[in-house]
Amino acid sequence: MSETVKYLLDETHIPKYWYNLAADLPAAAPPVLHPGTMQPVGPDDLAPLFPMELIMQEVATEREIPIPEPVREVYRQWRPSPLFRARRLEKVLQTPAKIYYKYEGVSPAGSHKPNTAVPQAFYNKQAGVKRLVTETGAGQWGSSLAFAGALFGLEVKVFMVRVSYNQKPYRRALMETYGASCTPSPSNETQAGKAILAQRAEHPGSLGIAISEAVEIAAQRDDTKYALGSVLNHVLLHQTVVGQEAMAQMDMAGDYPDVIVGCTGGGSNFAGIVFPFLGAQLRGGKKVRIVAVEPAACPSLTRGQYAYDFGDTAHLTPLTKMHTLGSTFTPPGFHAGGLRYHGMAPLVSHIKQLGLIEAVAYHQTTCFDAGVMFARAEGILPAPEANHAVKGAIDEALKCKAEGKSRTILFNLCGHGHFDMQAYIDYFGGKLQDLEYDEAELAMALAGLPSVKAA
Amino acid sequence: MSETVKYLLDETHIPKYWYNLAADLPAAAPPVLHPGTMQPVGPDDLAPLFPMELIMQEVATEREIPIPEPVREVYRQWRPSPLFRARRLEKVLQTPAKIYYKYEGVSPAGSHKPNTAVPQAFYNKQAGVKRLVTETGAGQWGSSLAFAGALFGLEVKVFMVRVSYNQKPYRRALMETYGASCTPSPSNETQAGKAILAQRAEHPGSLGIAISEAVEIAAQRDDTKYALGSVLNHVLLHQTVVGQEAMAQMDMAGDYPDVIVGCTGGGSNFAGIVFPFLGAQLRGGKKVRIVAVEPAACPSLTRGQYAYDFGDTAHLTPLTKMHTLGSTFTPPGFHAGGLRYHGMAPLVSHIKQLGLIEAVAYHQTTCFDAGVMFARAEGILPAPEANHAVKGAIDEALKCKAEGKSRTILFNLCGHGHFDMQAYIDYFGGKLQDLEYDEAELAMALAGLPSVKAA
Which CATH number fits domain B5-14+66-110+234-447: 2.40.50.100, 3.10.28.10, 3.40.50.720, 3.40.50.1100? Predict the structure, then answer.
């Protein structure tokens, strides 16, 4: 029962470029619109928020975008990350399927998030920025940006969704140990926060509100920029190191996936593992089934509308076309905080719309069942977000068993759950519930989508 | 500020044998004595507690003990672990010293402990054992044995020091997720526990008491054995994979340590990195200064007596000659729970007695200062235990600066602190105190050392 199959690349195999899916898409994604003019935004519109290098990556169409050497230098601390064959899990499942997983929990912050935090910190530092402002839900992103900020000598301020701020003091402590400051959101430090608190003094907060606060602060000062941990094209771009390494590692294994599974919140870890394989398919390579797994309590891909919407609650961001539950939708408080966002990355939404990927939604209890089975078989305890991918992969493996077919399944184990043990305590204590969103609230949020003429 | 220098071996370099320091010592360590007869114990005396393969390793004198292939298979999940040059820390310190650290936090349990948990589980499984019983303080060892038990299909029962059981529910949850059961100690499940509770119903527990409980349970059933996470020769032996890899990695770096620093509780992570280098020295290789760093609140090497003593409070274990504070000594509740043990490994004590190593003791606040500096420079947040090694290495580097000399410093960063964030919260909140042990209690504990005629 002890067999380990690990595919490890040496560090000369850290990718030298990020892969840009836009270069290979059969149709371009719809443009991002200015919230005032409803016209496509230009680079200058985004300049108050991001350094120009990241804005150019946001709209880039070249297939390969070089990774700066100082970024690769930092990646070397934990990259290339390992790819494992889950032989022990296969045996437990008695499946003829071959299950592989890419493990991103080896980063210092414990997830895939540093893959983009590091280049974002680098480009901002290079542009003379002194301070980064961001938001975080469960804290994976905030602690990753805090890590990157410490390495590049940038001040980092994080608006943390208040309910998580109170429930997850350890993630907050990690950010503070890296030298970042952490403010519960909604706060009295911004107009957006004050407006929310005026309506409801004890508001638990949401990612949409925290984004509004961070954007508002970033727009006020020239030496301060905004950073986002998912959703945007350049964030997804940076995560493609995951899929590129996985391709090389599947090659080492002499195998190629029939199915790729990733969990989706904003879409970045999913895009990271999927886009390089999808690009190869679009350029004439082997067709791969791709399955996005999302939480049933926040099901943007399976229950949202594909429509223009704001990224934040106060409507300070540009409008993007995406699968959305409406920017006023507040998902219930399930444990996978990284998946509690009302919208989906425009690029992931676009390929869903093009029929290139499937999506499925699961409730959290069944995902924790899968995560515990995985931990006991493979020895790694997954984050609650990652449990969704584990569940998706196990279901695919059980389908293989039912059909008597051997298929090759690859999934992204995007982070470890060492900061999420309360969720496991609740699970073992029988306190984990399958939370449902409010259908009436969803209807209202969708009815409130901004009216946008065909662009 | 982003330069990463990592030395990574491919998995063909996972050691094929453990290195046994006993083969190269100028004088053998004093024998282990039977508590009844005061005569040296034989293998049969230990058979109720350990499988014969581990007993033979305990007394082995061969230099190289082969690592079974199924153990190497599991090691491959995270080994070889990386060796880093701490260039960013060197810059912060403005030291001419070169600082290297071996990082054992990459294991699934987050520390060096699985290096011995895995072979212990393997040999027990091979001997037909069904259940392992052990104790744990902070939980690093308990969760590592739970991990190994899950992989080899062994039931694992952990007696966890009650104060840690209550303070660290997340470590407990990790053990339970791996399928182990966890009991607060002292408990009513053993005679040893009942006797303690009869004296003091709210006793906070200690490692010495938890060991008594685990040993008592293990001795009752043929299908049940005991496992210990440090102190014993075979445990230290298993950890030598750390130092062997580090030697190969220093070789890759074209360098060799002038000073090696490790933190010491029971002595196993220290022995792991030190013994292979010390062995090379004893066989005529380069002399290395070796510094053991221990907590000032539990200073066995710097304030203990080198004497025969029991490993546990109820005096169920054999007597070993070691630096001890007395088996009734209860250290104050500082955060590095893995260093709160009254004794030191007999082999580490022996080489201290032979003058082959130095020892120094630090209070916890200065160790956390060092740990936070390290986290911000190197991006890895150390466990409170590891902060002692960080502090020792920084002090050596500052000595180099004061003397204007460049020396090569190597230390073992034995684990990450993701399960120890409350300690960091206390630190930033100004609540961390430099706890002192009770001098009168120490004097009494030392006065109570068993009387042993020269063996």
Answer: 3.40.50.1100
